[in-house]
C-alpha cells in the first residue's frame, strides 16, 4: 500500500475519475470562497491549487484539476475541450467545485469525492469506506492474465478458469478478469457488507453479474470455507489481502486512515494474519496444480516462503515473485503441487 501522494502521481498520466457524491447539499458556510473574479476553469484550478498547497493537501494541482474537470463533465483536465478552459462557469458549477474542494480540504481521497475511477480500463463506482484499488493491483491483474493466456495449462484454464477472489472490495480484480477472460467465472468473497454491495453494483453496471457469485464470508472462520466447496474446485485463488504491518498503520496518510476501512489494510503484527488463513485453506478449494496469486508487502516474499516451508502438509510452493513498477517485490505466484 502506498501513501496517497505516490498513488495519485502514478495515476495522473493514465487514469481519471468521474461520478460524484450523490445528493450532496451545498453548505452555506464554506471555507476559501471562490473570488468573484475567477470564473474560468483555468483560473479556478490555479485558485484551488493555491488553497490546497497552503493547507498541505498532497498533489494539490492534480486534485483541483480532477475536481474542475469532473464538474465540467470530463474525466481529466487534459481532456476538456479548449473552449471550456476560458469559458465563464455558471454559478452552480462554481458552488459545486467549491463543495467538492471542501471535501478535499478534509483529506477525503479524490476517488471518493468524485465517486468513480478507472481500473484496468473499467469505470468503477467508489464509495467510502470500501478499499480504493491501487495502481499496483492492475499489475497483479496483468500477471494473472499473462499466465492464463500464455500458459493456460499452468493454471488449469480449460475453456476459461474458475477464479476465487478473497476480499473483493469494489470488485476491481474480479471484474477486470471477467472482462478480459470471456469464458471465465468468478466467486468473489468479502466480509464487509459495503464491499459486497459495491461489487454487486459494479458487476451490474458492467453487465458482468451473470458470471460472478458474490458471497459475504469471513475467511478467518474456517467453517465458512465449507460454503464455497459446492462451487469448487477452482483454478485460481487471487487476493490483495490486508497486508500492512500493524505497527505501520499509524504512518499511513490521513486520506487512508480517516476514510478507508482499516480491516482492509491491517494485516496484524507481521501483516500476514489474513494471508496465512488464505494459504492454509486454499488447498481445500484448489484443483491439482491450481495457483494462488497475492499482492503483498515487499517484506513478505521471504516470510511467506519460510512459512510455506514450515507447512509441507499444504503442498504449496512459491514458484515466482514479481516486482511492482517501483522495483519492489510485490506479487507472489504460489502453486499447489500435483498429488
Automatic annotation (TrEMBL):
Stored InterPro entries: DNA_methylase_N6_adenine_CS (IPR002052), HemK-like (IPR004556), N4/N6-MTase_EcoPI_Mod-like (IPR002295), N5-glutamine_MTase (IPR050320), PrmC_N (IPR040758), SAM-dependent_MTases_sf (IPR029063), Small_mtfrase_dom (IPR007848)
Any one GO molecular function term: protein-glutamine N-methyltransferase activity
Release factor glutamine methyltransferase N-terminal domain: residues covered: 43-115
A Pfam family recorded for this sequence: MTS
Enzyme class: transferase
Residues covered by the Methyltransferase small domain: 163-249
Domain of life: Eukaryota
Key words, A-Z: Methyltransferase, S-adenosyl-L-methionine, Signal, Transferase
PANTHER family registered for this protein in UniProt: HEMK METHYLTRANSFERASE (PTHR18895), MTRF1L RELEASE FACTOR GLUTAMINE METHYLTRANSFERASE (PTHR18895:SF74)
Protein name, UniProt field: peptide chain release factor N(5)-glutamine methyltransferase
Organism the protein comes from: Sus scrofa (Pig)
Classification lineage: Eukaryota, Metazoa, Chordata, Craniata, Vertebrata
Gene: HEMK1
Amino acid at each position: 500500500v502506498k501513501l496517497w501522494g505516490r498513488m495519485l502521481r502514478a495515476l495522473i498520466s493514465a487514469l481519471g475519475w468521474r461520478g460524484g457524491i450523490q445528493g450532496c447539499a451545498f453548505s452555506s458556510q464554506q471555507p476559501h470562497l471562490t473570488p468573484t473574479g475567477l470564473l474560468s476553469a483555468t483560473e479556478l484550478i490555479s485558485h484551488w491549487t493555491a488553497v490546497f498547497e497552503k493547507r498541505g493537501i498532497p498533489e494539490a494541482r492534480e486534485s483541483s484539476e480532477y475536481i474542475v474537470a469532473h464538474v465540467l463533465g470530463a474525466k481529466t483536465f487534459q481532456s476538456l475541450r479548449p473552449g471550456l478552459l476560458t469559458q465563464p462557469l455558471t454559478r452552480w458549477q462554481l458552488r459545486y467545485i467549491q463543495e467538492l474542494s471542501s471535501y478535499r480540504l478534509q483529506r477525503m481521497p479524490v476517488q471518493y469525492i468524485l465517486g468513480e475511477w478507472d481500473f484496468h480500463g473499467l469505470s468503477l463506482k467508489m464509495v467510502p469506506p470500501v478499499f480504493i484499488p491501487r495502481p499496483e493491483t492492475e499489475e497483479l491483474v496483468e500477471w494473472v492474465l499473462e499466465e492464463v493466456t500464455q500458459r493456460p495449462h499452468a493454471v488449469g484454464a480449460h475453456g476459461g478458469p474458475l477464479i476465487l477472489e478473497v476480499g473483493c472490495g469494489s470488485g476491481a480484480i474480479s471484474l477486470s478478469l471477467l472482462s478480459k477472460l470471456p469464458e471465465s467465472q468468478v466467486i468473489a468473497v468479502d466480509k464487509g457488507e459495503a464491499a459486497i454491495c459495491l461489487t454487486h453494483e459494479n458487476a451490474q453496471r458492467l453487465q458482468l453479474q451473470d458470471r460472478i457469485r458474490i458471497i459475504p464470508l469471513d475467511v478467518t472462520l474456517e467453517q465458512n470455507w465449507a460454503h464455497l466447496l459446492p462451487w469448487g474446485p477452482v483454478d485460481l485463488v487471487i487476493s490483495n489481502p490486508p497486508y500492512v504491518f500493524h505497527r505501520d498503520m499509524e504512518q499511513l496518510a490521513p486520506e487512508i486512515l480517516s476514510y478507508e476501512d482499516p480491516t482492509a489494510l491491517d494485516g496484524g503484527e507481521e501483516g500476514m494474519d489474513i494471508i496465512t488463513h488464505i494459504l492454509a485453506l486454499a488447498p481445500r478449494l484448489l484443483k491439482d496444480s491450481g495457483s494462488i496469486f497475492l499482492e503483498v508487502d515487499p517484506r513478505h516474499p521471504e516470510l511467506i516462503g519460510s512459512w510455506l516451508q514450515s507447512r509441507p502438509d499444504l503442498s504449496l510452493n512459491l514458484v515466482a515473485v514479481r516486482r511492482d513498477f517501483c522495483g519492489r517485490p510485490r506479487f507472489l505466484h504460489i502453486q499447489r503441487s500435483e498429488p
